[in-house]
Amino acid sequence: MESDALDTALDLLRRSLHTIALTGAGMSTHSGIPDFRSPESGLWEKVNPGEVASIYGFRHQPERFYDWIRPLAHTILDARPNAAHFALARLEAAGKLKAIITQNIDMLHTRAGSRPVYELHGHLRQVTCIHCFEMFPAKPYIVQFLESNIVPKCPQCGHVLKPNAILFGEQLPAQALIAARREARQCDLMIVAGSSLEVYPAADLPVIAHRSGASLVFVNLYPTPFDSLAQVVIHDDVADILPQLATALESGQHP
Ligand code: ZN
């Protein structure tokens, strides 16, 4: 059954002229990164997400936010791309994959060499001052925070610096969202990998692609609300399936 599904996915990939990928938290599981929006991440046990990880909570109690994000920031700083990220980079190198849209803030697609990557929920590459809106590279501030526990402050005006990850209650980055919707309309194949499609607007993108005539291939451990739209649905590990697809495409053989 699964071999049939892989064959069909490979066939769609071979015939595609414009493949894109939409990725979610499942991509980074093997890199040790929990889905920070998911109750199963363990990050919500002692706090109310709507409070501590919201822009309102951040503005009122940045210390609480930074305390909460400490383990995640530490993990992301040390994280490396896994076989699933590299497989998508290989599909790009093979001339197939034209863009990645991701819900992840961990920057692992860019670290794996993929371009362009549209980060719908922002990233931890930069921090922004909540007062003067100046942006700075995040790493030195995060490292300093992890070492000293001092909340990062703007070197220009002294107000708190916020990571460029999108918090609850914040607008999504308009440019990334516009580009993502354009890609969804233009692609002829969308691979949805490691996303349960439970969060909007990411969940809308396969629907847009489908309405525009694209084929859909879903690779996710769990069913999504949109499985019935897809030509291929594989409920399995992205770090297992995506490398198989990349290898088969590269070798010109069946998986
Ligand atoms: Zn400032």
Task: Offer a few descriptive terms.
single chain; alpha/beta; Rossmann fold; SIR2/SIRT2 'Small Domain'; 10 helices; elongated; binds zinc ion
Strand content: 15-25%
Q: Point out poorly predicted stretches.
A: none
In CATH, what is the class of the largest domain?
Answer: Alpha Beta
Number of strands: 9
State the end-to-end CA separation.
13 Å
Rounded to an integer in angstroms, the radius of gyration calculated over CA atoms is 19 Å
Main pleated-sheet profile: 6 strands, parallel
Oligomer: single chain
What does this structure look like?
The protein is of the alpha/beta class and 255 residues long. It folds into 2 domains: 1-33 and 82-121 and 172-255, TPP-binding domain (Rossmann fold, 3-Layer(aba) Sandwich); 35-78 and 124-165, SIR2/SIRT2 'Small Domain', CATH 3.30.1600. It is built from 10 helices and 9 strands. The chain has helices at residues 2-15, 49-52, 55-60, 62-78, 83-93, 108-111, 138-148, 174-186, 204-211, 238-251; strands at 19-23, 97-102, 117-119, 122-129, 135-137, 161-165, 189-193, 215-219, 232-234. Strands 3-2-1-7-8-9 form a 6-stranded parallel sheet, sandwiched between helices. It has a 3-stranded antiparallel sheet with strand order 5-4-6. Helix 9 links the parallel strand 7 (189-193) and strand 8. Helix 1 (2-15) crosses helix 10 (238-251), helix 4 (62-78) packs across helix 7 and helix 5 (83-93) runs parallel beside helix 10. The relative contact order is 0.19. The structure holds zinc ion (ZN). The site of zinc ion has 8 residues, from loops.
